[in-house]
Amino acid sequence: MSKDIRMVTRDAFVRNTTAEQLENRQVEFVISSEAVDSYRTVFKMDGWDLASYERNPIVCYQHRANSDDPDNIIGTSTVRIEDGTLIGTITFEDAEVNPKAEKIFRKVQSGTLKMASIGASVQKARLGLEENGEEKDVLYFTEQRLMEWSIVSIGSNPDAQKRNAQTVEELRESFKNKTKTTFDENKRSLREAELLVNN
């Protein structure tokens, strides 16, 4: 499994934001936790590799990192683990630099936009260990790299959700059958494999 790379995303939601943060154009999101999600998967907090992200900590709008419109990069963020959760704090670009970032910032403030989506490259995973008090049918991601995160209007679409479920099920079956599966880039592009899951 360590050589297989799977893109998995999870929902993110806005935390309570202070007046000081808003003055500094900052908003915090809870990006991930160790809660069992609707796909019966868990991201282990001690498995996060944040180094790659910290070298290029951009936040995009609608996952448009590869767009030819530079204004789709709306800010930068810091990430940290706090109280068993992964937190991302975005600092939006100034209105003079990026009018789109200003509009999105205002929509986040007003509550019109309140969802975000992250992408993680899963390096290692396993089924739950009952001796550790884990559920044996839950898939635990034990090593993963944060690749990116975005502010999104609708965090997922039916096709993305279907592919999200398919990727997770492929991983689960590979452990149940004790066989190794490979990520077929011809079958599913990286963009398609992103799981745009939100609240």
List keywords for this structure.
seven-stranded mixed β-barrel; disordered N terminus; 199 residues; elongated; alpha/beta; disordered C terminus
Question: How would you summarize what this structure contains?
Answer:
With 199 residues, the protein is an alpha/beta fold. It has helices spanning 19-23, 51-55, 99-110, 158-176, 190-193; strands spanning 6-14, 26-33, 41-43, 48-49, 58-61, 73-82, 85-92, 115-127, 139-152.
Number of helices: 5
The computed structural class is alpha/beta
- Beta strand count: 9
Rg from Cα: 17 Å
Pattern of helices and strands: EHEEEHEEEHEEHH
Largest sheet: 7 strands, mixed, barrel
Overall pLDDT metric? 79
For the largest beta sheet, what order do the strands appear in spatially? 1-2-7-6-5-9-8
Supply the number of structural domains.
Answer: 1
Query: How many angstroms does the end-to-end distance come to?
Result: 29 Å
Low-confidence stretches: 1-5, 156-161, 181-199
Strand content: 35-45%
Tell me which oligomeric state these chains represent: single chain
Helix content: 10-25%
Query: What gross morphology would you assign?
Result: elongated
